[in-house]
Amino acid sequence: MQGQSGPRSIFRPGLIWIWIFALALLAHGPGLGGALTLDDRMALSLHPVVQGEAPWWEAFTREWFGRPLGETWSSSYRPLTTLSFAIVQGLGGGSFAQHLLNWILYAALCLSLFRVARGELGDRAAGLLALAFVVLPPHVENVASLVGRADTMAALLGLWAFERLDGVDADAGRGPRRLRVALGCAAYFAAMLCKETVALLPGLLIWRAALAWRHDEDRARVRAKLWAALAVSLVGVVYIVSRQAVLPVALPSEFNGADNLLRELGFFERALGGLEVWGHYISMSARGAPLCADHTWGALVPASTLGEALRRPLWWLGVGALVVALVDALAAWRGRSPGWFAGAAAMALLIGHFLIPLSVILAERLVLWPSIFVLWGLVDAGRRWIAPRIARPQLLPALLGLACALWTLQSAQRSMDWADDLSLFRSSARACPAAMHNRVNLADAEAKAGHRREALWHFAVSAALRPQYPAAPELPVFALEAELDGLFDDGLDEASWARLLPALPAQLGVDDAATFWRSLATFAARQGYPEVAQLAAQLADFAATGGRRP
User: Fold this and answer.
1) Percentage of the chain surpassing pLDDT 70?
2) Is residue 386 part of a domain?
3) d(CA 270, CA 305)
4) Closest C-alpha among 550, 460, 448 to residue 497
5) Structural domain that includes position 534
6) Domain final residue pick, 246, 279, 311
7) Would you say residue 2 has pLDDT above 60?
């Protein structure tokens, strides 16, 4: 992984954009034809600015889903992302155009990463970094889900701000230097108006300035870096204070804690859970974990005591990441490392819930910004420490290439999962069978598609899970679903359903099947699913007569 690219290298700057767009098309192209899913409808279809029912400037006076600021609780404020939706909509673009812009912005982010990194890593290592970043499976949600654009836009502007501010040159003259810092601060401010995932960028710049103060003999360059870091820190403080006054980030007491079990815990307990969240993010990238949209309501129940945490492999993975970050920080202070892992850990403090509790425990789209610096650190470590110490260093790019090929296949599959609500929640139910929130969403999607038996099945499973939440029990029905994979694909025949549905209460540990089906019939009727309610009522009569036709 050492050295620059030669004239025949595939990592020449003139060719790298072709590789990036090619891999982006392979990994994320299947999502271009996707429909609106999850929060897409609220952020686009129901937002008056996006739909042209309100003037463009009201994007700044409304929260993420279009309600006026202060009208009701919301923790999301992303006006520039809303304006990007509105521009595409105003030009007559539909769902495909919105998805296409997501894809273009993501490819632009990957190209920017290559351009920014090549100054320190060289063409070859920076090319490997960018290509690995393109196909990393957790990034699929940022491309396939329209609301994931907020993270992409924030990361793109945040990376541009990092380049301006970290690379400020004391020899450029006072005027050009001030202009560079002003542009960097403006880019950071704009990134925050897309999404606050880049809020901790000033911390990374202060860290880089501190390392320069420690090791750089050019005091003028050190002072330039430090003043740039302080300037952007001031911008961040002013933004956060102003935003908090208008739209507080913290979750209110009435917030539904089922989406984030860490919110009511103290700092120590939340830190324990945060380390497990970190471990979960790492595992998704390393093992290509199956898709589970918004890991909530039982998909991830973090440990809240030390004894419980010690028995969790994902917690130990998070602890390992913390140890690596601390060791890297010490090595960087001694001049033996550039400190990228420590910087990545600082950027990930938000998604680990160490500083504030977010509205969900874990969502894949949040990993985009910190993963820039995690991958940067991995590639740099391979270039500096591993390649010089092995007999055949050319094997490292080959191994990374193999990982990229596997990630490309995984990302393409995930992109297809985001085609519509039905495929998304079916995939999620396979990946996280005990995640009740996904079950409810899947049942709703099945009912709207006219699949009343499938809808009733998933309503029943979610109803059995609800009293046991936040525990994630190993119900016999999960093994049955894994055996009958056709359950999630409309693949079961009439005879199979006639056998499976009456036996479902026993699979769920329900004693009174008739009462169970009647309560589900009432629920389905109340929610507006008459065909599902009718089937549940028939099953209640069937159970009440001891399995004989009424």
Assistant:
1) 94
2) no
3) 10
4) 460
5) 421-544
6) 246
7) no
